[in-house]
Amino acid sequence: MKKFLIVSVLAGLACSSVVAADGATLYKKCVACHGAKAEKKYLGKIPALNTIEVDKMVEDMMAYKAGSKNDFKMGAVMKGQMASMSEEDMKAVAEHIQTLK
Q1: How many Cβ atoms from other residues are within 10 Å of residue 25's Cβ?
Q2: Can you spell out the DSSP letters for 47-75?
Q3: pTM of the model
Q4: What is the largest CA-CA distance in the chain?
Q5: Least packed by Cβ within 10 Å: which of 8, 78, 81, 85?
Q6: DSSP state letter for 46
Q7: H or E stretch at 96
Q8: Residue ranges per domain, the chain?
Q9: What is the CA radius of gyration of the chain?
Q10: Separation CA 92–CA 101 (nearest Å)
Q11: What is the pLDDT of residues 55-100, one digit of tens each?
């Protein structure tokens, strides 16, 4: 029984590191509009992402995903971008953006 428990724990740790969200990889789909360093003010209106705090960015991404945010009439576009992202993914992206400053 102990061997099974140890193997289960080790397998769980290995899987969680493989499945963990990679903010840098996920951010690649954002670069066209937001810039390689998250520095672009898209359409000259939307603030540069590298100026927004992690919690606020995740909150905004969750709202776009839910369809309750439509800043600068970008709600539909952003909802599509957020559709496949989990909250963990969003946090990973937001944390990655903080490293680009």
Answers
A1: 12
A2: PPGGGS-HHHHHHHHHHHHHT---GGG-H
A3: 0.78
A4: 61
A5: 8
A6: S
A7: helix 87-98
A8: 23-98
A9: 17
A10: 15
A11: 999 999 999 999 999 988 999 999 999 999 999 999 999 999 999 9
- For residue 53, which phi and psi values (nearest 5 degrees)? -70, 155
Give residue 83's pLDDT.
97
Residue type, 47: P
Give whole-number Cα distances, 39 to 21, 63, 69, in Å. Answer: 22, 22, 21
Q: State pLDDT tens for residues 9-28.
A: 444 444 444 456 899 999 99
CB 85 within 8 A of CB 61: yes
pLDDT at 4 over 70: no
Position 24, amino acid: A
Q: 23-98, which class in CATH?
A: mainly alpha
